[in-house]
């Protein structure tokens, strides 16, 4: 029987197969030999197909970073890691982060957060500037200093929770405790209401475990799309059946929406600008943020992103610092002696600004940020206006180019014996120290760098000081494998989810 204008089904299929094959051959030839990225070094398979990256990201669970490291070892400082993207491993190359270049983020890569309408996930440079500006005055050093008392209250709660473990054989899971603390801090700071996760008897263990699944789901969403949208639409009852532990996370996210609505209503009732004690009001006050960006759903998206940005990062840093210090008794002694001496001179709790002045603590924090490198993901940027240059290579405009902080933080020519936690490396002459600081970039670079940097630093200093100033801790059934990066789910994740556990002596 004729199928299409006289052609049989068999010949239609054959014609389609020939067309597809020709198209694939042309595409392969373009990607490998003819396209503008063909001259960049790298494995041919990665240049040929995006499935190469998908395989490592999805099936090998966020392990493309290991491949990318190996590509650099084999092919040099600039490599083509996919048909579309280049990656640079050169600590001195900053072109992709120059503020004046007005670069975009790479939409495809960042869609893993499912929030391209929040400042963090916004691809376009100009739109991002407006969204960030509406928030940034809320995150200044002064603003964080005004938060001192709240920070003291929340960190003291961690201390009193850990007192419960003192002298018992029961281990405390500090990985979970730190993430509870970070969530309580960021929610209190940003929307004037702490979620009090530190009150949870087991430091919200099930909640934290479920929360840790999301970045991995995000990776699948990056590659296949729709996944986060489907989860978003899933009714609560269905989530309850599929993943009962997930319900707490759903409720948490829903509550952030409800909290946003409440704050928007308060704003409408109260027009006194001195009463602004949360970031929602700050954004509503903005004269540059367009009306569409002041809608409740978008403000809630910013809130959820803040919680996401401020929790895992700070939690991972505190976990790394505590683990590494506890494996070296001489470092514990030195840190405790410095904190105790400073505290004895003061009747009230030491504040962030004072703690920053303690040389060893300061070195511990910097080294902790280096070795934790709490943002594991590469940070791709796109210059749509002109070509970027790397040495003899001209990078065609609109090409995504990324770098990975970990490669710089573990570069042995900058940080000798990079795998060793060595706060002492920071206690050197001012000139040497300046050089080390120049390459320490845990908070990112350029116009997209971390908005919460002062809040993060204050949390880390105050928590470490209180932890080691108040307790003698001992690692419990925890070794380096329990904290070391195996997966790049944008945040670094270890293989196991056991976490850092300690007994409180
Ligand atoms: C140790 C703790 C932290 C580290 C290492 C860290 C690191 C980073 C990095 C590297 C970026 C840039 C990511 C990119 O280029 O795609 C970033 C962005 C961001 N971080 Fe943090 N962060 C930390 C804590 C926080 C905290 C406590 C908050 C506060 C709520 C926060 C809020 C943000 C926001 C809003 C952005 C997006 C900024 C923008 O796009 O304009 N971060 N962070």
From TrEMBL:
InterPro entries: Cyt_P450 (IPR001128), Cyt_P450_CS (IPR017972), Cyt_P450_E_grp-I (IPR002401), Cyt_P450_sf (IPR036396), Cytochrome_P450_monoxygenase (IPR050121). Heme binds at residue 450. Keywords: Heme, Iron, Membrane, Metal-binding, Monooxygenase, Oxidoreductase, Transmembrane, Transmembrane helix. The keyword Nucleotide-binding does not apply. The chain crosses the membrane at residues 12-34. PROSITE patterns: CYTOCHROME_P450. Its cofactor is heme. GO terms for molecular function: heme binding; iron ion binding; monooxygenase activity; oxidoreductase activity, acting on paired donors, with incorporation or reduction of molecular oxygen. Belongs to the cytochrome P450 family. This is Cytochrome P450.
